[in-house]
Prior knowledge:
Blueprint: E1 5-8, H1 12-23, E2 28-32, E3 55-58, H2 65-75, H3 79-86, E4 88-89, E5 94-97, H4 99-112, E6 116-120, E7 131-134, H5 142-152, E8 157-163, E9 166-168, E10 178-179, H6 189-192, E11 195-200, H7 202-214, H8 235-240, E12 268-274, E13 281-284, H9 293-300, E14 311-313, E15 316-322, H10 325-328, E16 334-335, E17 338-343, H11 353-371, H12 384-395, H13 423-443
Helix pairs in contact: 1-11, 2-11, 2-13
Amino acid sequence: MTETLHxxxxxxxxxxAAWQAxxxxxxxxxxxxxxxxxxxxxxxxxxxxxVCSNSFRSDDSEQNAVGLLHWEMRQAGGLIMATxxxxxxxxxxxxxxxxxxxxxxxxxxxxxxxxxxxxxxxxTALPDDGHWIIATGPLxxxxxxxxxxxxxxxxxxxFFDAIAPIIHADSIDMSKxxxxxxxxxxxxxxxxxxxxxCPMDRNTYExxxxxxxxxxxxxxxxxxxxxxxxxxxxxxxxxxxGRETLRHGPMKPVGLTNPHQPDIKAHAIVQLRRDNALGxxxxxxxxxxxxxxxxxxxxxxxxxxxxxxxxxRLGGIHRNTFINSPTLLDGQMRLKSKPHIRFAGQITGVEGxxxxxxxxxxxxxxAAAEIKGETLNAPPAETATGALITHISGGAEAKTFQPMxxxxxxxxxxxxxxxxxxxxxxxxxxxxxxxALWTVWxxx
Length: 444
């Protein structure tokens, strides 16, 4: 009888790992501590629950590394991408989903699989034998985190991750806001109007920055240091880096025209993205925050169009842990000191839903091959999945290791000249090469 693969954590990585291994004929037991043991960020006990955003980011597989990762996972029969496609909602050129039915479908599919058993309860110690994948994500429980730290002999790295607020759509003043995706991106009218936009003139923007900087913030506990991942900075941290930072980040006014005042160019624009299929909830794009709840409502209602906003969820901040993978993991994602244990997902130092799921997909396939007595090498570094595993298993500098989104900077260069003007051709060369190599890897 084939040995069982045990997976700890039912988030993006654990869910995908379970699906991949089971579809390769390996029995899987998926261990999830929720709902028996909750976290700050999760709202349910569903597998694959999305906590920070409902977006998988760009779906462009020819010009974007994230979109390429989407393509690779779809080709590999990925559960996360198939479910995302089923529950897709308009988001311009991005892939966004209706988060609640998404997680419900992931949960139902895993529980219906004949080779997958879901067990609920917290695991606080590293197993001594068997085949295991730890995919507990950024909110690994204290007991298990302590066990990992004791085994690795190194301090757990940590940064702080912030969550953006969600607003009821019917509380937004549409005499000031309008629907438009930046540069009218999208093939359909729904895609081209996937975002709500709230414009600010210079005086409103300056007053907003003043209030943001003065607002009460969440305090850290003794001994905690604020090491943020640059891709998920709280808005107040960005504002502290310079008064114009937000205007060149999530509040940039380019590519948008206000139909209420078409002749007036906004100084800054706040965008909101649909958070569910009904269009009744919108999240504020890039507005992760550590402001206290009272301050949040006051400051965010300074945004034109949101003066009467009702919040379905306010923003928050939580601790986010990851291991120093370049030091601790081998090229098969195994813990060097205990090779019967693999790590996958965000705890390995990749950042984002898609990247986490991709590492789960790979870990599930590698573990299944090992259990079946087969040899499976990691995918080539020229693929998006291969670039990520290469980065976390030795490509990154261990001393400065930080969570990383997939990007073309992680890929071996293509020999194509032309500078910035030739960037589209260069990105297409990256993705063409990756797709060919990924297809060969899957077939092999």
